[in-house]
Design brief:
The structure is a single chain. Helices cover 97% and strands 0% of the residues. It is mostly helical and 71 residues long. The protein is rod-shaped, with a radius of gyration of 31 Å.
Length: 71
Amino acid sequence: MATEGHGHLDGLTGQINLIYESTYAMERSVKELISSSKQIQKIAAAGSDQVQHKQQLLQSTLRKLQTIFKR
């Protein structure tokens, strides 16, 4: 009976270790996802700035052309 109890404890210990390792792996994955998300946000913000700058240049050019053609 004592051996059965010991075997059961070993099984539980093994399961606890697996849960711990899985939790640790999930934590690493979540941290990598957060890091990737931050990089994507930076890239998107930079892209947005470029689009905004090009839009301003186009609007300026349009105003200049309108001024020229009004003459």
